[in-house]
């Protein structure tokens, strides 16, 4: 969520793409300093497990309404070690990896493999985190893998999550893996293969994987890749190159809708990723001023739309956050309706008791039902 700063992230619990490996962000907080109102005057306190322990417990996952947080001390999480034959750590961005069903038996087998990988193969699955969706026809995932393309292919393939389409079907579904990478020596993403080259021995699956040599670059690319989705959450003018203070050659023109044209960044370029990082560090940048920009609100008014308004479209759908292990029959029922998974929560979060801190949804599932056009 690009609209959430580090303090809001930690006080809200802190879930993201590496949560399965590192736990909730709040689980790694060691100490807080805050200004509180004690009933008579303002007081500056330190809170940890020994001092002001109740305040410390409640702040970690309980939200930011208890005081004004001024300092946060957290533990440092070690990055996963590279494979013995690799010279450095690798981080993978997984983009639109899809697993299609061919009948009810295929659906059951696919979802059971998915469930088993997340909740029983945690020595491997903790390296993967992100978001996904379940539908009556397929499931898909997007996220980060803490390892190389080679590790990812081996792990996901042996656990039945890379659907090997027969060559006769592969052409129909465009089921050829796309592998790209950004090395420390390159200024742009390199196309390694698209169903040929080093990928020719891989299963014929649908999806794109992009390998980076730092976690920061992987996350910057993911953020850049999603800017069209988050246009209404930052104070962008719609011209991202202008906002990022980079050459117009780094953007492509498009249309947000019939009323508004925009220029989106070319995320394959290292210079664009560097500009995103610089904007993130600058507290005065457009990127650190949340909320919808005026042009976005003007469009909603011009079109007679209210942002996030319910529609009369059917069918009913589900959306929300899926956290705990559920049986395959439940997954099938959820898939038949359709659901979005905001953040996978397998792995490390489950190693803490539900009362470890004020995170309200540890080991629970949140499914928000949207009855479109109805109360």
UniProtKB/TrEMBL annotation:
Keyword terms: FAD, Flavoprotein, Oxidoreductase
Gene3D superfamilies assigned: 3.30.465.10, 3.40.462.20
UniProt-listed InterPro entries: FAD-bd_PCMH-like_sf, FAD-bd_PCMH_sub2, FAD-linked_Oxidoreductase
Protein origin, superkingdom: Eukaryota
Required co-factors: FAD
GO molecular function: flavin adenine dinucleotide binding; oxidoreductase activity
Family listed: Belongs to the oxygen-dependent FAD-linked oxidoreductase family.
Protein name: FAD-binding PCMH-type domain-containing protein
Native source species: Ditylum brightwellii
């Amino acid at each position: 969520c690009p609209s959430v700063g580090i303090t809001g992230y930690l006080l809200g619990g802190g879930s993201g793409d590496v949560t399965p490996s590192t736990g909730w962000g709040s689980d790694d907080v060691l100490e807080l300093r805050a200004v509180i109102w004690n009933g008579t005057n303002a007081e500056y306190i330190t809170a940890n497990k020994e001092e002001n322990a109740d305040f410390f417990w409640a702040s970690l996952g309980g939200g930011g309404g208890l005081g004004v947080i001024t300092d946060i001390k957290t533990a440092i999480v070690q990055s996963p070690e590279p494979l013995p034959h690799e010279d450095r750590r690798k981080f993978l961005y997984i983009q639109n990896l899809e697993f299609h069903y061919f009948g009810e038996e295929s659906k059951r087998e696919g979802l059971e493999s998915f469930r088993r990988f997340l909740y029983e193969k945690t020595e491997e699955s903790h390296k993967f985190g992100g978001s996904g969706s379940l539908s009556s026809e397929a499931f898909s995932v997007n996220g980060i893998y803490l390892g190389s393309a080679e590790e990812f292919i081996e792990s996901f393939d042996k656990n039945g999550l890379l659907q090997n389409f027969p060559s006769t079907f592969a052409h129909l579904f465009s089921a050829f893996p796309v592998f790209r990478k950004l090395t420390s020596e390159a200024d742009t993403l390199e196309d390694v293969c698209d169903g040929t080259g080093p990928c020719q021995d891989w299963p014929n699956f649908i999806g794109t994987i992009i390998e980076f040599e730092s976690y920061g670059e992987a996350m910057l690319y993911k953020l850049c890749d999603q800017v069209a989705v988050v246009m209404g959450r930052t104070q962008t003018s719609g011209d991202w190159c202008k906002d990022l203070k980079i050459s117009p050659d780094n953007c492509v023109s498009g249309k947000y809708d019939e009323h508004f044209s925009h220029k989106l960044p070319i995320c394959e370029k290292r210079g664009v990723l560097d500009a995103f990082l610089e904007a993130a560090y600058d507290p005065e940048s457009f990127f650190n001023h949340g909320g919808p920009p005026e042009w976005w609100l003007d469009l909603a008014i011009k079109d007679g739309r209210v942002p996030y308004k319910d529609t009369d479209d059917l069918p009913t759908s589900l959306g929300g956050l899926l956290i705990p292990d559920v049986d395959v029959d439940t997954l099938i029922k959820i898939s038949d309706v359709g659901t979005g998974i905001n953040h996978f929560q397998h792995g490390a979060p489950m190693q803490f008791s539900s009362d470890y801190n004020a995170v309200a949804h540890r080991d629970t599932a949140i499914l928000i039902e949207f009855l479109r056009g109805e109360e």
